[in-house]
Amino acid sequence: MKDVIARTNRFYIEMSRRVLSEKEYDVLLKLLIEKMTLQEVASIYGVTGESIRQIYESTYKKVQSVTQLLAEIEYYKQKLEQLKYDFKCETKQIKKSKNNTEIVLHIMLYESHFPFSKRMHNMFEVLDIQTIGQLAEIPLKSFGCFRGFKEQCKKELTAFIEFENIEHLFEGFSVWKKQPIQ
Predict the structure, then answer these.
(1) Total H helices, total E strands in the chain
(2) Domain total of the chain
(3) Exposed (0-12), middle (13-18) or buried (19+): which is 28, by Cβ within 10 Å?
(4) 3-class state of residue 131 by DSSP
(5) Which domain, by its residues, includes 27?
(6) 137 φψ region: left (φ > 0), alpha (ψ -120 to 50), beta (else)
(7) What is the CATH number of the domain that holds 23?
(8) How many whole angstroms separate alpha carbon 123 and alpha carbon 177?
(9) What pLDDT, in 10s, does the model give residues 33-86?
(10) End-to-end CA distance of the chain, in Å?
(11) Are 92 and 60 in contact (CB under 8 A)?
(12) What per-residue confidence (pLDDT) applies to 59?
Protein backbone atom coordinates (compact mmCIF):
# COMPACT_ATOMS: atom_id res chain seq x y z
CA MET A 1 0.00 0.00 0.00
CA LYS A 2 2.85 2.39 0.80
CA ASP A 3 4.30 1.76 -2.66
CA VAL A 4 1.02 2.81 -4.29
CA ILE A 5 0.91 6.00 -2.23
CA ALA A 6 4.51 6.81 -3.08
CA ARG A 7 3.85 6.30 -6.81
CA THR A 8 0.72 8.46 -6.61
CA ASN A 9 2.64 11.19 -4.78
CA ARG A 10 5.43 11.07 -7.35
CA PHE A 11 2.90 11.25 -10.18
CA TYR A 12 1.21 14.35 -8.79
CA ILE A 13 4.53 16.02 -8.04
CA GLU A 14 5.79 15.36 -11.57
CA MET A 15 2.52 16.65 -13.06
CA SER A 16 2.90 19.88 -11.09
CA ARG A 17 6.61 20.39 -11.74
CA ARG A 18 6.03 23.19 -14.26
CA VAL A 19 4.02 25.30 -11.81
CA LEU A 20 6.32 24.77 -8.85
CA SER A 21 9.51 26.63 -8.11
CA GLU A 22 12.64 24.51 -7.75
CA LYS A 23 12.53 24.92 -3.95
CA GLU A 24 8.84 23.96 -3.74
CA TYR A 25 9.44 20.91 -5.91
CA ASP A 26 12.43 19.87 -3.82
CA VAL A 27 10.53 20.32 -0.52
CA LEU A 28 7.63 18.17 -1.75
CA LEU A 29 10.03 15.55 -3.05
CA LYS A 30 11.89 15.33 0.25
CA LEU A 31 8.73 15.23 2.38
CA LEU A 32 6.54 12.91 0.27
CA ILE A 33 8.98 10.68 -1.58
CA GLU A 34 12.11 10.60 0.57
CA LYS A 35 9.94 10.65 3.74
CA MET A 36 12.09 13.23 5.53
CA THR A 37 10.68 15.08 8.53
CA LEU A 38 9.93 18.81 8.57
CA GLN A 39 12.96 19.40 10.84
CA GLU A 40 15.33 17.48 8.52
CA VAL A 41 14.19 19.47 5.49
CA ALA A 42 14.35 22.72 7.52
CA SER A 43 17.96 22.02 8.48
CA ILE A 44 18.90 21.51 4.78
CA TYR A 45 17.51 24.95 3.89
CA GLY A 46 18.53 26.66 7.13
CA VAL A 47 14.98 27.66 8.05
CA THR A 48 12.51 26.69 10.74
CA GLY A 49 10.21 23.70 10.57
CA GLU A 50 7.26 26.11 10.52
CA SER A 51 8.60 27.72 7.32
CA ILE A 52 8.85 24.31 5.66
CA ARG A 53 5.31 23.47 6.82
CA GLN A 54 4.04 26.72 5.26
CA ILE A 55 5.93 26.02 2.01
CA TYR A 56 4.50 22.50 2.01
CA GLU A 57 0.96 23.75 2.64
CA SER A 58 1.06 26.40 -0.14
CA THR A 59 2.75 23.97 -2.53
CA TYR A 60 0.22 21.28 -1.74
CA LYS A 61 -2.59 23.72 -2.59
CA LYS A 62 -0.88 24.55 -5.90
CA VAL A 63 -0.57 20.86 -6.76
CA GLN A 64 -4.17 20.26 -5.79
CA SER A 65 -5.41 23.15 -7.97
CA VAL A 66 -3.32 21.94 -10.92
CA THR A 67 -4.70 18.41 -10.68
CA GLN A 68 -8.25 19.77 -10.42
CA LEU A 69 -7.62 21.93 -13.46
CA LEU A 70 -6.26 18.96 -15.39
CA ALA A 71 -9.31 16.91 -14.43
CA GLU A 72 -11.58 19.69 -15.66
CA ILE A 73 -9.64 19.96 -18.92
CA GLU A 74 -10.00 16.21 -19.44
CA TYR A 75 -13.73 16.43 -18.69
CA TYR A 76 -14.22 19.22 -21.22
CA LYS A 77 -12.15 17.40 -23.83
CA GLN A 78 -14.45 14.39 -23.51
CA LYS A 79 -17.49 16.68 -23.62
CA LEU A 80 -16.14 18.33 -26.80
CA GLU A 81 -15.53 14.94 -28.44
CA GLN A 82 -19.08 13.85 -27.59
CA LEU A 83 -20.50 17.06 -29.06
CA LYS A 84 -18.45 16.58 -32.25
CA TYR A 85 -19.65 12.99 -32.52
CA ASP A 86 -23.28 14.00 -31.95
CA PHE A 87 -22.98 16.72 -34.59
CA LYS A 88 -21.53 14.29 -37.11
CA CYS A 89 -24.32 11.83 -36.37
CA GLU A 90 -26.97 14.50 -36.78
CA THR A 91 -25.49 15.69 -40.07
CA LYS A 92 -25.04 12.05 -41.12
CA GLN A 93 -21.31 12.47 -41.70
CA ILE A 94 -20.73 9.18 -39.86
CA LYS A 95 -22.80 6.09 -39.35
CA LYS A 96 -24.28 5.30 -35.98
CA SER A 97 -22.05 3.73 -33.35
CA LYS A 98 -21.78 0.04 -32.67
CA ASN A 99 -24.06 0.37 -29.65
CA ASN A 100 -26.76 1.89 -31.82
CA THR A 101 -26.15 -0.80 -34.44
CA GLU A 102 -26.71 -3.51 -31.83
CA ILE A 103 -29.97 -1.85 -30.82
CA VAL A 104 -31.08 -1.58 -34.46
CA LEU A 105 -30.42 -5.29 -35.03
CA HIS A 106 -33.05 -6.20 -32.41
CA ILE A 107 -35.80 -3.97 -33.81
CA MET A 108 -38.74 -5.98 -35.08
CA LEU A 109 -39.63 -5.44 -38.74
CA TYR A 110 -43.29 -4.85 -37.90
CA GLU A 111 -42.21 -1.95 -35.60
CA SER A 112 -40.89 -0.03 -38.60
CA HIS A 113 -43.03 2.75 -40.03
CA PHE A 114 -42.16 1.55 -43.53
CA PRO A 115 -45.29 0.47 -45.48
CA PHE A 116 -44.44 -3.11 -46.46
CA SER A 117 -46.59 -4.73 -49.13
CA LYS A 118 -48.48 -7.93 -48.43
CA ARG A 119 -46.03 -9.72 -50.72
CA MET A 120 -43.05 -8.56 -48.61
CA HIS A 121 -44.79 -9.52 -45.36
CA ASN A 122 -45.38 -12.99 -46.79
CA MET A 123 -41.71 -13.19 -47.91
CA PHE A 124 -40.54 -12.36 -44.36
CA GLU A 125 -42.97 -14.88 -42.91
CA VAL A 126 -41.79 -17.69 -45.22
CA LEU A 127 -38.14 -16.88 -44.48
CA ASP A 128 -38.93 -16.56 -40.74
CA ILE A 129 -37.42 -13.06 -40.57
CA GLN A 130 -38.72 -10.99 -37.69
CA THR A 131 -35.93 -8.53 -36.85
CA ILE A 132 -33.64 -6.24 -38.79
CA GLY A 133 -30.71 -8.33 -37.53
CA GLN A 134 -32.15 -11.51 -39.05
CA LEU A 135 -32.72 -9.65 -42.32
CA ALA A 136 -29.13 -8.35 -42.30
CA GLU A 137 -27.74 -11.89 -41.80
CA ILE A 138 -28.94 -12.91 -45.27
CA PRO A 139 -26.51 -11.91 -48.04
CA LEU A 140 -28.24 -9.55 -50.47
CA LYS A 141 -27.31 -11.73 -53.46
CA SER A 142 -29.29 -14.60 -51.92
CA PHE A 143 -32.61 -12.75 -52.11
CA GLY A 144 -32.75 -13.27 -55.90
CA CYS A 145 -32.80 -17.04 -55.28
CA PHE A 146 -35.95 -16.92 -53.16
CA ARG A 147 -39.19 -17.85 -54.89
CA GLY A 148 -41.30 -14.77 -55.59
CA PHE A 149 -38.50 -12.25 -54.98
CA LYS A 150 -38.62 -10.18 -58.16
CA GLU A 151 -37.88 -6.57 -59.14
CA GLN A 152 -40.79 -5.16 -57.11
CA CYS A 153 -39.59 -6.89 -53.91
CA LYS A 154 -36.06 -5.72 -54.57
CA LYS A 155 -37.24 -2.12 -54.96
CA GLU A 156 -39.22 -2.43 -51.76
CA LEU A 157 -36.33 -3.98 -49.82
CA THR A 158 -33.97 -1.29 -51.13
CA ALA A 159 -36.43 1.43 -50.16
CA PHE A 160 -36.81 -0.09 -46.66
CA ILE A 161 -33.04 -0.27 -46.10
CA GLU A 162 -32.64 3.34 -47.18
CA PHE A 163 -35.72 4.44 -45.20
CA GLU A 164 -34.31 2.97 -41.98
CA ASN A 165 -30.80 4.22 -42.84
CA ILE A 166 -29.26 0.77 -42.24
CA GLU A 167 -27.20 0.47 -45.43
CA HIS A 168 -24.10 -0.18 -43.31
CA LEU A 169 -25.59 -3.50 -42.13
CA PHE A 170 -25.70 -4.92 -45.66
CA GLU A 171 -22.37 -5.66 -47.29
CA GLY A 172 -22.24 -4.48 -50.91
CA PHE A 173 -25.61 -2.71 -50.71
CA SER A 174 -24.69 0.16 -53.03
CA VAL A 175 -23.66 -2.27 -55.80
CA TRP A 176 -26.53 -4.73 -55.21
CA LYS A 177 -29.28 -2.12 -55.47
CA LYS A 178 -28.11 -1.16 -59.00
CA GLN A 179 -27.87 -4.71 -60.34
CA PRO A 180 -30.89 -6.34 -61.98
CA ILE A 181 -32.46 -9.51 -60.52
CA GLN A 182 -31.25 -12.63 -62.27
Answers:
(1) 9, 0
(2) 2
(3) buried
(4) strand
(5) 1-98
(6) alpha
(7) 1.10.10.10
(8) 18
(9) 888 898 998 999 899 989 888 988 888 788 788 778 877 888 888 888 888 777
(10) 71
(11) no
(12) 83
